[in-house]
Amino acid sequence: MSALLDVDQLMDKLEAGLRGLLNERGIESPVLIGIRTGGVWVADIIGKRLGIEEPFGELDISFYRDDFSRIGLNPKVTPSSLPFDTEGRDIILVDDVIMSGRTIRAAMNELFDYGRPASIILATLIDLGARELPIQPDVAGQSLTLGMQQRVKLRGPDPLRIELQETEQ
Amino acid sequence: MTANAASPNHLQLTRDGQLRHFLTLDGLNRELLTDILDTADSFIEVGERSIKKVPLLRGRTVVNLFFEASTRTRSTFELAAKRLSADVLNLDINTSATSKGESLSDTLLNLEAMASDMFVVRHAQSGAPHFIAQSVTPGVAIINAGDGRHAHPTQAMLDMLTIRQHKGGFEGLKVAIVGDILHSRVARSQIRALNELGAEQIRVIAPGTLLPRDVESLGCTVEYDMAKGMKDLDVVIMLRLQKERMEGALLPSEREFYRLYGLSQDKLALAHPECIVMHPGPINRGVEIESAVADGPQSVILNQVTNGIAIRMAVMSMAMGGQVAERQQKLNELNELNERGLA
Question: Which domain CATH number covers B68?
């Protein structure tokens, strides 16, 4: 186990990428929504860096996962909390890691049950590739290709650090 | 019946301790009961969205099998199933095939042939949902919506959710259940849940004729004098006088019952000032509860109804989840055996 990536550096890249994109699209007052658990930690930090004062939302996607028919319901589900109306808003959806893309599909399905946002930008701290769905982040802190036995995990919230784990097959 | 079949947990839980049927609170530990309440909290949030639906049971068929009349329970089960995106079939058995002489087993076989995934069962006979759970095809979940005098576990859990919302938890709570304990499956389930979740005192307040024998063995104290019983209460749960189940003269008169055990504003004033008033419904105004109390600021009776939807969504999705996870686990084990050439 080792911390191979510097979280601050990744946050710098994520912040710069988001500033550029918001600027390019002319988005002035975006709202942040983090996917539990890691995405919420990242949203918290990025929100402060971007100077977004509106409190960020938290999404628990347990009720929208596509593997319910294989593993059943996540026993530790917590209520999603969106302290604003999403209708017509520009949303920055944040997760710590993107891989298959299934989490993001579930998150977007859930988001649309709250209303019709004007736009969604997807921001992730790490992009591990290995996609199973046609979903790509608009901004990522770092792209990474893992070996078969490697796993990456964000630990937090204070301090936030990235762990690379070697699993035994 | 073997010892295993008699144990409710053998039926209700998977090997991993997940719910797969929901028949009784007996044998369910505090952790699982808390998981149910926590999951229901998340469904309450879903109920506040513009689209109050999640896709968990999409493509699955839920049959509401009611052998006994019910308005609130049946309609909240129906709404819960629909908010989980299930297809729902409501069967009022009083008016259907059984009155033409079809046996319960035959009715069930026919419903299973329609590829149902879950039966929500209410029956006047104690133990009917257990019987069905024992004989049903693997993969089909059974939810008890009230059986005879035995149990009404979703009602008790929605009451626990309501108490937790208003009191923050169960530690140190003094709770009384008042009225017709004898005929009440709700009271039995409530006493069990309150004990498991750690309430400090559970009192039952009723005339001797409306108490089951050995009621203390359920884990409560008995009080015949309501004025004494109301003292320091945090929660008072009124029960409906079940006139349809009364045989013989258990009561002198309704008026006498109201005078002694009805919840009036005067009697409520004897409890803790922040005591909440609950009632599983339907309420008989002026028989067990004064209108001013039922509609008053301490009443949470309508919160109970809202919470009923969330609790039923929680229990249905957890039981269905346990069933599908178990089926997948068995498939995986079979595949493994196949690969090793053993099957």
Answer: 3.40.50.1370
